[in-house]
Amino acid sequence: MNNKKVISVLLSSTLVLSLANSAYAATILKYGMRSPEVRHLQQNLNKAGYFVTANPTDYFGPATKNAVMRLQKDYNLVPDGIYGPLTEKALMDKLNAISKATTQTSNTSLQTQSTVTRTLKYGMQGNDVKELQNALAKLGYFNTTPTGYFGSITRDAVIKFQKANNLTPDGIVGPLTQKAISEKLNVSLPSRGDVNRSTNTTQNSSNSNQTQNTVTRTLKYGMQGNDVKELQNALAKLGYFNTTPTGYFGSITRDAVIKFQKANNLTPDGIVGPLTQKTIQGLLAGKDQQASQPTDSPKIQYPSGFSRNMKKGDTGDDVKLLQTLLKEIGYYTKDITGTYDDNTLNAVMDFQKYYSLAVDGIAGINTITKVIEINNQVKAVKGFYVQGKGGYGHGVGMTQFGAKGMAEQEYKYDEIIKYYYTGVNIEKRNTDNVNIKVKISLDLGSPDINITSDQPYSVVYKTKDNDTEQIVENQIACPAQSTTSFKYMDGNIVITNDKVIDDSTQLPQTIVSIDAVRVIPSDTGVLSYINKGNPLPYAGEFKIYPNNSSKNLDLINILPLEEYLRGVVPAEMPSSWHEEALKAQTLAARTYALRRISDKKIFDVYDSTLSQAYKGLSVVNDKVDNLIKATKGEVVTYNGGLADTVYSASAGGYTVDSTFAWGGSDVPYLKGKPDPYDNSKYATYWWNVNITRDQISSAYPQVGVVLNVEITNKMFDRPVELKITGTKGTIVVKNKDFRDAIEKAVGKKLFISEYYTISLQK
Fold first, then answer.
1. pLDDT tens digits for range 581-610
2. What share of the chain is helix, strand, coil (3-state, %, to 5)?
3. Which of 83, 311, 430, 533 is the S-S candidate for 29 at Cβ 3.0 to 4.6 Å?
């Protein structure tokens, strides 16, 4: 081609997925792609506060993937790093919210522009980092040229500022540090929540000194600081937090927040935003007011359906309800009786132990509340949606549809070979006197092997001389168009030709050979194996072996290697395809076969996908013949030795390492890589299936009732490990084991390929 595309162009690929009833029929972008749309995505991620790079590019690399995953986690999406329709909607929602907030802020005052739009820390870069450096320089803490990179100089400047302003000197520019910088610069930062906290604080302070806002930012899982500790203290006062406040927002704090939110008709997301903060403050204010007045001991507020602590020996509808809830979450397996018996006691204790409650066997307020919470989580899980791509074959080495696509883009056959087989060379070997032995697939409907020819042919067989006990080789001359039948009998081969007559009986002569038989054509003749009544022509000769294991015969076609390729290449790849693809197929087939030739075996390769397809002379084609001659002797080598040039039809858009497919030792030239020129249906269509919660739970009873399944490790765009979380435990399983277990539980095949994603349906 005129302007040679470099191999890196192979990394670009765009897959379009249409979603019915959705405004976001978006282009799917993912790791390894190269497209102008990736640049646009990076720009939008930067604007949304998920910084990728100060100089957006067309390449979807690790930084882009990490930014997409951060966005997905914030919006409770599967954090797979793939930018699809749901992720696009989340990003658009984020950008719309920022745009709306910016418009409202700019209408209020020109002085409310923020110099920082996200929490900044060591290692980050961007315009907001540069603005931070400018701000610190104005305040006298940063004495070098602003670069936009948050390095050690910037961190030291931040720590100095924090110490001087009685802030935690952690070198991280979070909301409190941002606010302090803005106040020093006489610039007000926009609110980081959906209400103005200064209004709440003023109103609360006018009522009571005890109701000052304890939280100054939206808090969620993974955060830490004094405001988290104050939140924990507040929740403890309200009866939702029963351990020592630490200042770290972990799972215990999140569970406490969710309990509080459910009890107060808030969205139970475990995130402490303005509405949750306001509700906490209101309840604290009421609690402080009640504390100043004499009152009776507070009455415990049990969830609906419960009014007491339940223990062994108790009976009633509340015990029945407890048993029902425990049964629905996998802890109680007996009949619902309404009696708090040993089975109920053991179920409660198992539940308390797993969820780190006091293991006393008493169903008190904390146990009941947790049981209801887990039961709600179970009921929220509808099932799981699995979406995957096809692929066709093992996915190692060259893909035939990928080779076709590359050839159509004007890549030469050597470029195709060197892309799919990493670090290889193309060399020439002398194949003039090289023969190959091919095991022919037999007609399973007949115990006999029947051979014929268009010209006279010979059958060479062996007998034992009764006098000398020497093995003697004999020969039958068979007429043209005659059929010779071969049949296994007690380790021998019975031979009958329909036109060779026994003089004494005037019937077809029957001969027994005690060893393998050769069938040799004349110089101009062609042998044919009669399969289901159809004669199939083959070059070379046949050799027939008795197989004592199967009590049958093995038919082997022995012929020159280059002749063999005439029956392989058009059987593996349509002869109508581009010549460069056919040449690449020829080299792969020749090298694959040559590597397997050995004098120590009765055959070298099969004629099927167990090795590579071979159809003899019935598929020969002039175009392919000319390409075989043009590349005669050319093979693929690695470090001077023949490469194992395995190939398949399609890898679904991404090939895999040989170790990923088959295990074993690493093969340096069989490495997985993007396969963007494969435009076949196997690489572009998606299959999907729904799996119910109960189906997965039955496959993995040890985890209880399943709450979530997520892919925790991927290679070559394929799952490697999955984490299954249930009401009684969590396990990590291998991809194949997961597919096998689910299909066994369901009782039918569900997974069309190993190439899929899985998401929770609520």
1. 999 999 999 999 999 999 999 999 999 989
2. 35, 20, 40
3. 83
